[in-house]
Amino acid sequence: MFYRARIAIFAQIPRAKLDSMMFDDLGKYLIIAFVLFFGVMAWRAWQVKQASPQWPSVQGEMVSARAFTHTENGPDRGASSHEWYTEVRYRYTVSGTTYTGDRLRAFGRHHFDQQQAEAEIAPFPVGKPVTVYYDPAKPSASVLIPG
Predict the structure, then answer these.
(1) N or C: lower Cβ tally within 10 Å for the chain?
(2) Contact 65, 125 (CB under 8 A)
(3) Are 87 and 68 in contact (CB under 8 A)?
(4) DSSP 3-state percent helix, strand, coil across the chain (nearest 5)
(5) Phi then psi dihedrals of residue 14, to 5 deg
(6) Residue 128 near residue 90, CB atoms below 8 Å
(7) 7-31 per-position pLDDT tens digit
């Protein structure tokens, strides 16, 4: 009965207005999905930040570490930038399974200059042992700097 009533209501609305209503609703749903997605991502990073100081640790090996500007990969390649980022890769083994991690900390940081970015990764030279903190419930989740 509800279905028939709903069809009757839509039958009375002109087609152009119905299309406009559907387009407006689509925009609302996309915005809601966008906010939910980034909300879940931020919530998960906050959980890692809170839990990682209590995670067990293992020795791993630093595979790569670099400081770079956002424009190194974009269309403005070579342009000066005020945003510097760090990228790390490290390898570690938990219970006989080897994992590769790429998180320095729970929340990534933006640096204002190259020196700040390089200072953050300086304690992690490539090829050297590093202490890796991993989630015991999901060993593939790890950080080098807990908290």
Answers:
(1) N
(2) yes
(3) yes
(4) 40, 30, 30
(5) -60, 150
(6) no
(7) 555 555 566 555 555 666 777 888 8
State the Cα–Cα distance between residues 70 and 4, nearest whole angstrom. Answer: 55
CB 46 within 8 A of CB 106: yes
| Whole-angstrom distance, CA of residue 127 vs CA of residue 62 | 5
For 17-94, strand residue ranges (E) read: 57-69, 84-94
pLDDT in tens, 127-141: 999 999 999 999 999
Task: Give the SS3 label for residue 28.
Answer: helix
pTM: 0.66
Q: Where are the beta strands (DSSP E) in the chain?
A: 57-69, 84-94, 97-101, 129-135, 138-143
Q: What is the DSSP letter of 109?
A: -
Structure tokens at 88: 């790390």
Q: Which residue has the higher pLDDT, 81 or 142?
A: 142
